Amino acid sequence: DVKVTQSSRYLVKRTGEKVFLECVQDMDHENMFWYRQDPGLGLRLIYFSYDVKMKEKGDIPEGYSVSREKKERFSLILESASTNQTSMYLCASSFRGSPLHFGNGTRLTVT
Amino acid sequence: GEDVEQSLFLSVREGDSSVINCTYTDSSSTYLYWYKQEPGAGLQLLTYIFSNMDMKQDQRLTVLLNKKDKHLSLRIADTQTGDSAIYFCAANTQGTYKYIFGTGTRLKVLA
Known about the structure:
Number of strands of chain B: 11
Structural class of chain B: mainly beta
Largest sheet of chain A: 7 strands, mixed
Strand content of chain B: over 45%
Shape of chain A: globular
Number of strands of chain A: 11
Number of helices of chain B: 0
Number of helices of chain A: 0
Largest interface: A-B, 25 and 23 residues
Distance between the termini of chain A: 37 Å
Order of helices and strands of chain A: EEEEEEEEEEE
Radius of gyration of chain A: 13 Å
Order of helices and strands of chain B: EEEEEEEEEEE
Oligomer: heterodimer
Helix content of chain A: under 10%
């Protein structure tokens, strides 16, 4: 079974802090994704990566950056956390054209 | 733009069948997926269907696809309380990184 592991289930950070969300997959998938999930808005794509060191902006990249130095690891960075970034963050991975496999999510609260 | 729509809520009695419906707008969608999300968790892939198929059955799950009407349904036979969750429909076009998710249907199973 594919395993996608997000390093934290819950995080509480202060406004202005730099925040790192980590995601690791064990299936040698080329593609990795970061989504955020908010009530009434569904899943929105922040960034995705199709190879090491390659990244593409999704629908809502503002205020976020990403890093993919190794194939199995994809990090989401909030440069200066704000309260409107309080959300559930979901990491996913896939082979091209195959289903997305999700991690368990990180619920981030910015106070 | 592309869109995937689902009804918000469904309530059924334990032991009955549940049918969750989804419509999508992008006729080039190649893969259609069903995911399940339990409270506080990520999305779990339940099943998926390729666009040249009409039906797929996997134990208690049956997926029906009407490509002409761009309508997808998920039937859960003998619904159990453990099936209570949010169910997401998603569409992807082969060769693209874009997965379009519906806003989810919350299934409540009454004992």
